[in-house]
Automatic annotation (TrEMBL):
Gene Ontology annotations of biological process type: cobalamin biosynthetic process
Xref: SUPFAM superfamilies: CbiG N-terminal domain-like (SSF159672), CobE/GbiG C-terminal domain-like (SSF159664)
Protein name: CbiG
Record-annotated Cobalamin synthesis G N-terminal domain positions: 72-152
Lineage: Bacteria, Bacillati, Bacillota, Clostridia, Lachnospirales
Domain Cobalamin biosynthesis central region: start-end pairs: 157-239
Pfam families according to UniProt: CbiG_C, CbiG_mid, CbiG_N
Coiled-coil ranges (or none): none
Domain CobE/GbiG C-terminal: start-end pairs: 243-363
Origin species: Blautia hansenii DSM 20583
């Protein structure tokens, strides 16, 4: 997690320095800033002896903010996972207000008073991780954590926390809110999963395994596609477990790659958010169309040698032409299966789909839901 800390007074500055060093020791990527006329003299390196301890500490630790706090906050919303304001809640609220968009993308925001008595989770408590960061900061400062999320206060299952922990995409944030409201009201919420699970399913969720059993109207379905509709109102949680194996003619553009991958996924109603990575042969490692496609979606592109692909056991759609060009009879199916098997045995769920000079195959890795 990339964290930015900002303070506004000398006492706040001292607290932020403590947080900076402890969080860095805990392997966070941390940057610290100060915006105060009272600390400006301390931070002015030109007034310090370069051999002094103060100079070395300041040079390694704090960065003075010359721009407006609004401009600074806007930059941090773009390049950080979390922002810690050491100062008044009012400063934090006014600073972040122009940039707040969605709990799916907003960074975590935590406020610490300058005396270090309270650590307050202000924004993106669940998905952004502000609640967890608040607890950790409170432990470091021996402060009182302040968390106002209803499911936390009532010790109820939180679907957004569960989704984040399991690396799942939430299909409908409004429906996720309705599920939280139902749980808080003591209503039944169903649970269905295409995957096995570790740990105990929370008491608030009703496990629905039989097609003919009576189900709640609202429920959660952990799956890679939208083929099933187990509840009248179904919230889909989509894990990133699909490796897309790709082959294509040299010079194929991104739009063609995208179109054919989409058609292959549509066969099983698999959304692109289920895609963990794209895999191919190393001959394609510089293929612009594939690279642009992966960059746009921020997913890894991995490649294998012909020898590595040849060693993948199984029966595949063989092509003599492909073998003459690449040294292996099938690229997309073998690459998809090999990519999905790095953490266990994967399986093909969509065999070779070919169109417009592009071949696509889909494989799913072995994966489990985690309630622990």
């Amino acid at each position: 997690m990339k964290i930015a800390i900002i303070s506004f007074s000398q006492s706040g500055y001292r607290l932020s320095e403590m947080l900076y060093w402890v969080l860095k020791e805990r392997s966070y990527e941390v940057a610290s800033y100060t915006k105060s006329k009272y600390t400006k003299k301390v931070l002015d390196e030109s007034q310090l002896d370069e051999d002094s301890q103060d100079f070395r500490s300041v040079k390694q630790f704090a960065k003075p903010v010359d721009e407006s706090i609004k401009e600074w906050t806007g930059r941090r919303f773009e390049d950080c996972d979390a922002i810690v304001f050491v100062g008044a809640c009012g400063i934090a609220v006014r600073s972040i207000a122009p940039f707040v968009k969605s709990k799916k993308i907003d960074p975590a925001v935590v406020v610490v008073d300058e005396q270090g008595q309270f650590a307050i989770s202000l924004l993106s408590g669940h998905i952004g991780g502000a609640n967890e960061l608040t607890e950790e900061i409170a432990e470091i400062l021996r402060a009182q954590p302040v968390i106002t999320t209803a499911t936390d206060l009532n010790d109820k299952f939180a679907v957004d926390v569960f989704a984040k922990k399991n690396g799942c995409f939430i299909s409908d944030m409004e429906l996720a809110k309705e599920i939280s409201a139902a749980l808080l009201a003591g209503k039944e919420v169903g649970f269905v999963s295409d995957f096995p699970w570790l740990g105990e399913i929370p008491d608030e969720l009703k496990l629905c395994q039989k097609e003919d059993e009576e189900k709640p109207e609202i429920g959660i379905c952990v799956t890679t596609g939208y083929l099933e509709h187990p509840f009248v109102h179904t919230l889909y949680l989509i894990p990133r477990v699909i490796t897309t194996g790709l082959g294509c003619k040299k010079g194929t553009d991104k739009e063609t790659v995208e179109s054919v991958v989409r058609r292959a996924c549509d066969e099983l109603l698999i959304p692109s958010v289920a895609m963990e990575q794209v895999a191919s042969i190393d001959l394609k490692k510089e293929e612009a169309g594939i690279l642009e496609y992966c960059k746009e979606r921020k997913i890894p592109f991995i490649t294998y040698t012909a020898e590595e692909l040849q060693e993948v056991e199984g029966t595949y759609a063989s092509s003599q032409f492909v073998e003459n060009v690449t040294g292996v009879d099938n690229v997309c199916e073998r690459a998809a299966l090999l990519g999905s098997s790095k953490d266990g045995k994967g399986r093909l769920i969509q065999r070779k789909y070919a169109k417009d000079g592009v071949t696509v195959a889909l494989a799913m890795k072995k994966w489990s839901v985690n309630f622990e």
